[in-house]
Design a protein that fits this description.
The complex is a heterotetramer of chains A (357), B (564), C (211) and D (106).
Chain A lengths: L12 H34 L17 H30 L7 E8 L2 E6 L4 E3 L1 E5 L3 E8 L4 E5 L4 E5 L5 E6 L4 E7 L12 E6 L1 H10 L50 H10 L28 E3 L5 E3 L2 H9 L22 H13 L3
Parallel strand pairs in A: 1-5, 4-10
Antiparallel strand pairs in A: 1-2, 2-3, 5-8, 6-7, 6-9, 9-10, 11-12
Helix pairs in contact in A: 1-2, 4-6, 5-6
Chain B lengths: L26 H5 L4 H29 L10 H20 L2 H15 L7 H23 L13 H5 L4 H28 L12 H33 L12 H18 L2 H15 L6 H14 L15 H29 L8 H24 L1 H7 L3 H31 L5 H28 L13 H31 L49 H16 L1
Helix pairs in contact in B: 2-3, 2-4, 2-5, 2-17, 3-5, 4-7, 4-8, 4-15, 5-7, 7-8, 8-9, 8-10, 8-11, 10-11, 10-12, 10-13, 10-15, 11-12, 12-13, 13-15, 13-16, 15-16, 16-17
Chain C lengths: L18 H36 L1 H8 L4 H26 L3 H32 L12 H36 L7 H24 L4
Classes of the chains: A alpha+beta (357), B mainly alpha (564), C mainly alpha (211), D mainly alpha (106).
The structure holds heme-A (2 copies), dinuclear copper ion and copper (II) ion (CU).
The site of one heme-A has 36 residues of chain B, from helix 2, helix 3, helix 15 and helix 17.
């Protein structure tokens, strides 16, 4: 199934340029490496101490002209390589002049979410039309991630608290790896998916029908097995954001099971515990309030009011944490709106309810 | 093998001399010693242990990476493994490696003095190092750390649930050891040179230690401060680097790499110095371009401070800064190129002896050039956008750090082993191990270049199946490598008991350290040395032959030639 | 005073051949150490600069909670202690041990006063509720950041001061007993003390004089 | 090698006077700092002026109290290196911030 590759596929306008530069650098490097290895082996044989016949008219003092000449030559060569690479880099980093297709991207621990101009959203998958300049507006909700598509020879760190743009133009339809390239915690190696480069017509159809694509929520498994095209795909259609909270969605992500046990598993896999302690042994203060016994407890808010931590409050805290901030804590909890299905949310809340109290 | 014919180079039979080894007995005399030679031995034991630890972790990682899913360990365990591997190898093995062992042992001997300028400070450095190391070990054992050796924020400050604080404290403590050692070396080199040991007669190894020390003194405090801020942020939940609280993670990257790029030159310069010594000795020829090699060490130390941003080309740093850091990275490569050129020129018309240390020197040059040239490839902006944080980078730095520095360390250890212990190691085993290490090394890390360019990201405990072939090759290689590293451990220990006596100067080498008996007396020299010659006068007639056997064989050969 | 510096009495410690050589090694060692310290504090100043320029309002607001009077008094105390330290060094070179003892005592006294005043100021901030980690409400993270820098920078400085006070005390006792084990130590401690003073000279405008 | 180029008694009248004068200058500069701060100068100047005066004070401390002026070349080199490296740290880091517009220009 996997043909052995020595060289990656290229599927963007820049890929070819980067490859040519890379191969040129490799060639120069090989020349130097060859010269050095060759020189060592040749001299080691020729001037081996047992080889008495070799001429050894010792030269003790080197000439500065030799060293300066070497420095000069290497400087010229280096500046050449630098200039080539620099120009290409500027090319990659400069915003294109023409119109672009804009896609918003949000990275959070171990999930990529993309939102198209139409409002279509997808998780761990990105659909783009071929031959069109795409601008990705990227941000992170927690730590630093890095958007990496090897076939595009494109990588960009995605930082929390700021927007970062990247541009690319896909040239070959197909399905390519999307990786997270900056270490971001437990499931860093699972934080990936696929970029689908489609013919413009297909792309338009895909947008209209209700996007099909990414099949799983990052942490929950199956990341590198390429889904067969006709595998049941998940609809995260346009306008999901507008769906009233609590309204049942047509295609749930996972089979229905709202037990607290499943909530506990989610709590672990979504790494809630990175902020919320469920024990009191940690060495350092937690970043978020302890959730043991939170259900049914009055909670003092930042604005001085007090609310009862009932079920709607817990739901809101998870979906829209900034709506009501607990006193004494920074507003850093990310929203899980785009990550959790309703069932998963219910499971989480059930789990929280089950935590003592 | 060698019939013990009296050799002109063997020491005269003597009543048991007082050496630094037998000058005092008992644990106390070792643990409270201020003798730089004994402290060097203590360091050697400590860093060997740390290397073994880091190596075992590397091997476990390689086993995990045999198959695409994370099946041998959980992904959390894998993350802890590579973090601990990087941290232990960088701070507790490679940075102290040559300076604190060979450097500590040889610096006073080479410049002809009794000890370092501040002997008690030297012992203190060792204990600081040990405390830092044990701290880190404890943290790694109880919970571990999963941030990678780079501690990028806000992951390390706000998200990781592991023992970040303890590990950071360990490295913080170790940093003082590094600074104090550097300070001690600099002051020693300036104030304690023997009469006649002018700067242009200084051994090149001393030059490289001097340059290394400058980096340790000027870069480490920035790491110290950065780790303090990180620890404070983590402990107190204040937002120095966390954007959620107004902090700036890119500032962390700047501060971290301001230290950590120069630190990679802490990790290579001493090795470059060792190689300069080995090449000239086993070519029996004066080193080519002494001034240039000495000067290039200083140039690397200075320019090395100007390129740190090449680790941040895709971090969100400005494009202009990227350009500046990239061009300077090319410039900093030139002093390294000068060294390589002068070494090769030294071989030219030499009289080359392929002894174990020389094999290591050759391996070093080759692997360092591969690592260095790929360093230039990753310094090329547009290419780095693709290969940053892939196995291409992993291969780059293992070529330099393992293929380069570790090889230089082994080469130096073999070269000075007779001086340190007074015993000869078995040459045949030495050559076999050197070759095996070279083969195993390349098998381990060459495939990583290919999969890196294919797009295999680093710090992945689970990966896409198409990369598996290369991972399997790499793991196979690391098995060979692991076995190969055990060989020197075995035969060097063996030689302590069974090795033949070395005599003061088994290589007939130049340099003050060879003028005193092996192992040296506690005060290094029986008579205060005075230097009258140029360094590396291997061209002089009396430096020509390495040992009597060889002299005899050559004479016979010559004779038989002239006959026909 | 006949022969000085060149022929200090006493014997050099092991690796050195003469006391003069030893003294110049000490001096060089301390300066090299201070170069290292420059980078330690320098990195802190760099971080300060970045956040200050990012959040100038928060900085101005934060500095309003500092007392100009206390800041200036602290600076004055330190300058005075620098003078006494410099005099102590000069006196030690002249081997005027009585004067050395007195001047070191003055230096220690001023140093302790500085720390005391500093902690009084911390106490004021504590009352106002600005202590990082204890009081932060996260209502204004940028203001919090100012106080993080304020506290950490002054604490790091105070830590250095305390080490200096410790060293002086040791030397003072030895000088009092006329049994100074290492006379060059007065000079190197003086260098260290002046450097710590110098750091404060920059902290003062950066933490107190912000508008 | 030794820094006793400055003749005579290190704790004599002249030597002490020199230190007193330096201290006086330092206090004068401290007064100037406060004056600049409380007088109605533009707010933007307050810190730069404060820093400038601090630099002057630091120069005095280093040159006289720390005796850099009369020290060996080597010692002066060590001091200069510290300062130069600090400059590198600042220049290249702030260069990044300023050139991507992440900080308001100075
Ligand atoms: C001992 C350690 C060591 C050394 C000496 C070097 C040396 C160099 N390194 Fe390397 N590097 C690391 C250890 C080291 N590196 C580590 C650990 C990382 C990863 C950190 C992490 O993210 O975890 C890294 C990462 C790294 C990166 C970032 C990659 C990325 O993350 O995207 C870059 C980019 O420029 C780089 C460049 C260089 C360069 C230009 C040199 C140069 O100094 C090399 C100079 C040598 C030569 C060039 C060879 C000899 C010359 C010739 C034979 C003549 C030909 C020369 C010319 C044409 C000029 N290194
Ligand atoms: C000095 C530095 C050094 C050294 C020597 C090594 C040595 C090795 N390293 Fe390491 N490595 C790093 C520094 C180093 N590494 C760093 C800095 C990172 C980055 C970490 C990060 O991302 O944060 C890294 C990351 C790294 C990775 C990437 C992990 C990832 O990104 O997912 C891999 C993968 O193959 C690897 C492999 C190896 C191997 C196979 C060796 C082999 O050479 C090891 C061979 C040795 C042995 C197998 C041990 C043999 C000896 C014994 C068994 C005897 C033991 C007993 C006693 C002596 C008491 N290393
Ligand atoms: Cu997200 Cu790595
Ligand atoms: Cu680097």
């Amino acid at each position: 199934m996997n043909t052995l590759r020595f060289f990656p596929q290229g599927a963007s306008a820049e890929a070819g340029h980067v490859d040519v530069l890379f191969l040129a650098l490799v060639a120069v490097s090989l020349a130097f490496i060859g010269a050095v290895f060759g020189g060592i082996v040749y001299f080691a044989v020729k001037y081996r101490h047992t080889n008495l016949g070799a001429e050894r008219k010792h030269i003790f003092e080197d000439r500065w002209q030799l060293e300066v000449g070497l420095i000069g030559a290497l400087l010229v060569l280096s500046l050449g390589a630098f200039t080539w690479a620099g120009v290409l880099y500027i090319d990659i980093e400069t915003p294109p002049t023409g119109p672009t297709l804009d896609v918003q991207g949000v990275a959070k621990q171990w999930v990529w979410t993309f939102e198209h101009a139409t409002g279509a959203r997808e998780i761990n998958a990105l659909h783009v039309p071929v031959g069109q300049r795409v601008r990705l507006v990227l941000t992170s909700e927690d730590v630093i991630h890095s958007f990496y598509v090897p076939a595009f020879r494109l990588k960009q760190d995605v930082l929390p608290g700021r927007e970062t743009n990247v541009w690319f133009e896909a040239t070959v339809p197909g399905r390519y790896h999307l990786f997270c390239a900056e270490y971001c915690g437990t499931d860093h190696s699972a934080m990936g998916g696929w970029v689908d480069v489609m013919e413009p017509g297909d792309y338009a159809r895909w947008l209209a029908v209700g996007a099909t694509g990414g099949s799983d929520v990052g942490a929950l498994g199956g990341r590198y097995d390429q889904p067969t095209p006709d595998a049941p795909a998940v609809a995260l259609g346009p306008g999901r954001r507008e769906a009233p909270a609590g309204a049942p969605r047509t295609e749930p992500l996972v089979a229905e099971d709202a037990s607290a046990a499943r909530g506990a598993a989610l709590f672990a896999s979504l790494n809630c515990a990175s902020c919320h302690r469920t024990d009191s042994l940690a060495l350092y203060p937690a970043r978020g309030p302890a959730l043991v016994g939170v259900y049914g407890r009055p909670v003092r808010l930042q604005n001085g009011r007090t609310v009862l931590a009932d079920e709607p409050y817990l739901r809101e805290s998870i979906l829209n944490p900034r709506a009501r901030i607990v006193q004494g804590y920074p507003p850093i909890m990310p929203s899980y709106r785009d990550v959790l299905s309703d069932d998963e949310l219910s499971a989480l809340v059930a789990y929280l309810q089950s935590l003592g109290g | 093998m060698t019939t013990t014919a009296p050799s002109p180079f063997a020491p005269p039979p003597e009543a048991t001399r007082t050496t630094y080894l037998n000058a005092g007995t008992g644990l106390r005399s070792w643990l409270l010693t201020t003798d730089h030679k004994r402290i060097a031995v203590l360091y050697t034991l400590a860093i060997t242990a740390f290397f073994g630890l880091g190596g075992v972790m590397a091997f476990l990682m390689r086993l995990e990476l045999l198959t695409p899913p994370s099946d041998l360990f959980t992904i959390d365990t894998y993350n802890r493994l590579f973090s601990a591997h990087g941290i232990v190898m960088v701070w507790f093995f490679l940075i102290p490696s040559i300076p604190t062992t060979l450097g500590n042992f040889l610096l006073p001997l080479m410049i002809g003095t009794r000890d370092l300028a501040f002997p008690r400070l030297n012992l203190l450095s060792f204990y600081i190092f040990l405390v830092g190391g044990l701290f880190t070990l404890a943290a790694v054992s109880f919970g571990g750390i999963d941030t990678g050796w780079t501690f990028y924020t806000p992951y390390s400050t706000s998200f990781s649930q592991t023992r970040v604080f303890l590990v950071v404290m360990g490295i913080f403590v170790m940093g003082f050891s590094s600074i104090l050692t550097g300070l001690n070396f600099v002051v020693t080199t300036h104030t304690l040179r023997a009469p006649g040991m002018t700067w242009n007669r200084l051994p090149l190894f001393v030059w490289s230690l001097y340059a290394t020390s400058l980096i340790q003194i000027l870069a480490t405090p920035v790491l110290t401060l950065t780790l303090v801020l990180l620890g404070m942020e983590r402990w107190f939940g204040v937002g120095i680097f966390d954007p959620a609280l107004g902090g700036d993670p890119i500032l962390f990257e700047h501060l971290f790499w301001f230290y950590s790029h120069p630190a990679v030159y802490i990790m290579i310069l001493p090795g470059l110095g060792v190689i300069s010594e080995l090449i000239t000795c086993f070519s029996r020829k004066h080193i080519f371009g002494y001034n240039w090699i000495a000067g290039s060490s200083l140039a690397i130390a200075a320019f090395g401070f100007l390129v740190w941003g090449h680790h941040m080309f895709v971090s969100g740093q400005s494009v202009y800064a990227g350009l500046v850091f990239s061009v300077l990275s090319f410039v900093v490569a030139i002093p390294s190129a000068i060294k390589v050129f002068n070494w090769i020129a030294t071989l030219y018309m030499g009289r080359i002896y392929l002894r174990t240390p020389m094999l290591y020197a050759f391996a070093f040059i080759g692997l360092f050039v591969i690592g260095g040239m790929t360093g230039l490839i990753v310094a090329s902006l547009a290419v780095d956008v693709h290969v940053h944080d892939t196995y291409f980078v992993v291969a780059h730095f293992h070529y330099i750090m393992v293929g380069g520095m570790l090889t230089a360390y082994l080469g130096g250890l073999h070269f000075w082993w007779p001086k340190i212990t007074g015993k000869l190691y078995p040459e045949g085993w030495g050559i076999a191990a050197a070759i095996l290490i070279f083969v195993g090394f390349n098998l381990t890390f060459l495939p990583q270049f290919i999969m890196g360019y294919l797009g295999m990201p680093r710090r992945y405990g689970a990966y896409a199946p198409e990369f598996q072939v290369y991972h399997v090759l790499s793991t196979a290689g690391s098995t060979v490598l692991g076995v190969a590293y055990l060989l020197p451990l075995g035969y060097l220990l063996w030689s302590l008991k069974y090795g033949p006596d070395a005599g003061p100067n088994p290589w007939n080498a130049t340099g003050l350290e060879w003028t005193t008996p092996s192992p040296p007396p506690p005060d290094n020299f029986d008579e205060a040395p005075v230097v009258r010659d140029m360094p590396y006068a291997y061209h002089l007639e009396h430096r020509q032959f390495m040992d009597p056997d060889e002299a005899g064989a050559l004479a016979a050969k010559k004779a038989s030639r002239s006959e026909d | 005073m006949p022969e000085l510096a060149t022929t200090l009495p006493g014997r050099p410690a092991p690796p050195f051949d003469s006391v003069g050589q030893q003294a110049s090694a000490r001096r060089l060692g301390m300066w090299v150490f201070l170069a290292s310290e420059t980078l330690l504090f320098g990195a802190f100043f760099l971080a300060y600069t970045v956040y200050r320029r990012l959040y100038p309002e928060a900085w101005a607001a934060g500095a309003q909670h500092d007392s100009l009077a206390i800041g200036t008094a602290l600076t004055g105390v330190l300058l005075l202690s620098s003078l006494t330290a410099a005099l102590a060094v000069a006196a030690s070179k002249a081997r005027a041990w009585r004067a050395v003892t007195g001047l070191i005592a003055a230096t220690v006294g001023l140093g302790v006063f500085f720390i005391g005043l500093k902690f009084y100021e911390y106490w004021l901030h504590w009352q106002d509720g600005f202590v990082p980690a204890l009081h932060f409400t996260h209502a204004d993270p940028h203001l919090d950041l100012f106080f993080v820098f304020y506290f950490l920078m002054t604490l790091l400085h105070a830590l250095h001061m305390s080490i200096g006070i410790g060293l002086w005390t040791l030397l003072g006792v030895q000088a009092h007993r006329r049994r100074l084990r290492d006379e060059a130590a007065v000079e190197t401690t003086g260098l260290y003390w002046h450097f710590v003073d110098l750091v404060w000279l920059f902290l003062y405008p950066l933490l107190y004089l912000v508008k | 090698m030794h820094s006793d180029s400055r003749s005579a008694d290190p704790f004599g009248r002249d030597a002490r006077l020199r230190l007193y004068k330096t201290a006086a200058a330092l206090f004068a500069l401290l007064g100037l700092t406060v004056a600049v701060y409380v007088l109605p100068v533009p707010a933007a100047w307050a810190t730069p002026a404060g820093l400038l005066i601090a630099a002057a004070k630091a120069a005095l401390v280093v040159a006289v109290f720390m005796e850099l002026a009369g020290s060996s070349r080597l010692v002066r080199l060590a001091a200069a290196t510290g300062a130069l490296w600090l400059l590198i740290l600042f220049a290249l880091t702030l260069g990044d911030y300023l050139s991507r517009g992440a900080l308001p220009a100075l």
